[in-house]
Amino acid sequence: MQATVKWLDGAMFVGESGSGHTVVMDGPEDLGGRNHAVRPMEMLLLGTGGCSIYDVLSMLRKSRQAVTDCRVELQAERADAVPAVFTRINMHFVVTGHSLKESQVQRAVELSAEKYCSASIMLGAAGVEITHSLEIVAADAPQTQ
């Protein structure tokens, strides 16, 4: 896997993945940025959520669960001192579908956490406390946010 990150100006950077996709990152105005894009640590958190939700959806499809919507809400805490690493992350999965089996959803989340999600497993190995929770919503039930 390869990637390149190039400085644009101030605290703004553009990253290009080995597959040719680009993403802009920026910092807050008080640190020379213009606050026009996601922060690098936010990108790390988003990538971790993306890695895990991909696993969960893949497993739910394989187990023929009728998923109509899925999201993972991430709450992270960082150390107060430099380096301000993540110390805790909670991943709350909200899975919507028809007649979903809670045991299947729970198992998919557990397998992602314990076996498949490279990003969260790597962060956990580095000392980040990662917790998971889930909520199942019937597809015909009113949505709350």
TrEMBL record:
This is Putative redox protein. It comes from the Bacteria.
